[in-house]
Amino acid sequence: MPARHEEIADALRQAIDREEYTVGSLLPPETELATHYGVSRGTVRQAIATLTAEGLIGSRQGARRVVLTSRRSQTFAELRSFAQWARAMGREATGRVVAQEHRPATKEDSVRLQLPVGTPVLHVLRVRGLDGKPVLVERTVYADWISPAVAAIEPDCPSVTQRLYDDTDLVFAYGEHVIDAVAAGAQDAELLGIRRTSPLLRVRRVTTTREGRPVEWSDDRYRSDAVSFSVHNSIGNNALARKTAD
Question: Is the separation of the CB atoms in 66 and 58 below 8 Å?
Fold first, then answer.
C-alpha cells in the first residue's frame, strides 16, 4: 500500500492533469492542503517534494509552489519517443502504419538525412493513439541504412524507438524540432477523426545518433486538444530557440 504522501502526490498530479491547477497557477498553501487531505504539513511537504523532483511544480523557499507543466505536456528537456512519454503519464500508446514504401530520396530528404539524392529511403505514414484515441499523424522518412530494420517491424508496434533499440542497439540521441501550427487537410482529418481545417500542432524533427548520423526526419501533426509542448529554461540554460516561420 502506498504511503500517504505518495497518495497525495498522485492526487495532485491528477488535479494538474485535469487542469484544476493550470500551468502558471499557484498550489494552495501547505496548511490548506494539510487540512484538505487530513494530514500533517510534513506529509504535504513530502508530496510536494516528489512533484518538484518530477518537474511538475517549481519550488522557492518561503513561497507557494507554481505549476510548471502537466503530464499531458511533452517537454524537450530530454529526448523521448511518443510511447515513452505516454508511459510516463500512465497512458497506453498505440501505433498503426497506414502506408509504407521505399522511394528515391528527394532534395529535401538528401539535406535532412545527409544522403545523395536518389538514395532509396523508407517513407512511413503512421497514426499514433493515446488510450485508443488517435492524436498524432507521423510522416517519417528513414535513412537507407536503418530502413530494413524499420520495414521488418510489425505495423501495430507501439514503440518503433524501443524496437530499434532492442533489435539493433540504435539509440536516438539528438533531435532538432521546429514547431508551428497548420490546418488539417483531408487525409489528416480522416485519420484523426476531426473536421477538415481543424488546428494541428506540427513538429518537424530530425533525429540523429550519438555520432550525429541522421536516422530519420519526420513531419508530426498532433491534435491541438490532445498534446502540448513545454520548454524549461533559465538564465543560465535556455534550450528554446526562436525561428521565423518558413
Answer: yes
- Following DSSP, what letter does each residue of 62-127 receive, concatenated? TS--EE---TTEEESSS---HHHHHHHTT--EEEEEEEEEEEE--HHHHHHHT--TT-EEEEEEEE
Helical pair 41-54 and 4-17, crossing angle rounded to 10 deg? 50
The parts of the chain modelled with pLDDT lower than 50 are none
Measure the CA–CA gap between 148 and 112, rounded to whole angstroms.
Answer: 19
- Residue 240, classed as helix, strand or coil, is coil
pLDDT at 73: 62
- Identify the pLDDT of residue 153: 96
Q: What is the DSSP letter of 236?
A: S
Handedness of CA 207, 209, 238, 74 (dihedral sign): positive
